[in-house]
Prior knowledge:
Blueprint: H1 4-9, H2 11-20, H3 26-61, H4 69-103, E1 124-129, H5 142-148, E2 152-153, H6 154-161, E3 167-168, H7 171-190, E4 194-195, E5 201-202, H8 204-209, E6 239-240, H9 245-249, E7 256-258, E8 264-273, E9 292-302, H10 307-325, E10 329-333, E11 345-353, E12 358-367, H11 371-376, E13 379-381, E14 389-390, E15 392-400, H12 401-411, E16 419-420, E17 434-435
Helix pairs in contact: 3-4, 7-12
Amino acid sequence: xxDLRWVSESLDEVKAQLARRGFRDExxxxxxxxxxxxxxxxxxxxxxxxxxxxxxxxxxxxxxxKKSAEFAEKREALRTLGDRIKELEAKKVEIETELEGILxxxxxxxxxxxxxxxxxxxxxxxxxxxxxPALSFTPKDHVDLGTSLGLLDFERAxxxxxxxxxxxxxxxxxxxxxxxxxxxxxxxxxxxxxEVWVPALVKDSALRGTSQLPKFEKDVFKLAAKVGEDxxxxxxxxxxxxxxxxxxxxxxxxxxxxxDQLPIAYAAYTPxxxxxxxxxxxxxxxxxxxxxFDKVELVRFVTPEQAIEEHEKLTRHAEAVLQRLxxxxxxxxxxAGDMGFAAKKCFDLEVWLPGQDxxxxxxxxxxxxxxxxxxxxxxxxxxPKAKPQLLHTINGSGLAIGRTLVAxxxxxxxxxxxxxxxxxxxxYVGGRAKIG
Length: 436
């Protein structure tokens, strides 16, 4: 969430920054301007009335006869001033609550290093790794490959759960599990992340903290029944997580960390659940866009001074998985208009899929500034006894496991329909080198 004071006092700059993202909702911006003006006016009047109150209190204190009419008159005037100040303070709180509701719907402002542009056509290729596989035959996509090799079963998944689910069988299931282990081993043992195992169900406060709510409410699955029915509050709602970013980032909600603890780096495997409410008709074939999928997530908590370097570091850590597997990919820096809602700077890793003749996103590595930390109340103390400041948060997939499996099937396919298993993955699948 954007800083309320900055928005109120620097509205023209806020509008200019949001325009870089293509956000020009005049109704919202007009309401923002009106409320920001009312807030400034309320603050100014509170300060004026307080000064008046202090002056009147000083005058009244000099009156010797505390039973005089003059003293009674001054006392009544002070009571009236006090009541007015309380009214103004209540009005200020009311205005700020309304402003906060608007701010929850505003995206983050882009970092100056984020390229201008309103859609993916303005994204910038930062670097490319490896060579596209030189296939001497017409490549198959992962659906045809996985089905013919007995790894994937979409029909039985549909029977059990409906569209956009998959069943992995035999070596397919083992590859999924092996990829998860390979990723965690790499990030924990070589990159220094602390592994955490977190709940797949979270409260709405956690989703609000990482910016999924209220903006993307239609994209998350909510349990029909409340839990904790015996609580005094009558229970609360739980949601299936769309990514491990939600529970992991919220581990430090409402906490004050010490500067020497930072950076903190966590790696977590979780299943992920998304309704994909806004993506009907897109990527409905296969494993690219499903309601349930597996992912290893990387999360870093840093100081503002560490943020740019730590963002680059996390991105390199995600890339290392693809390099270890020998998969050709490229790194894209997203333009302002193509970034996710909460990001201020973002690098996408796009892996090459021969069966689709296209690069497809396999990880988004985002720096959020203090946008999430402000929502969560996550702070750090720059020095002993210093005033706490907001943390910066960074995260990215390290990687999306299903899409990594898709890339292996398509990039490592052979002319006879078999698939060579990357050497780094073989110890995780019993030493097997080939499928088919």
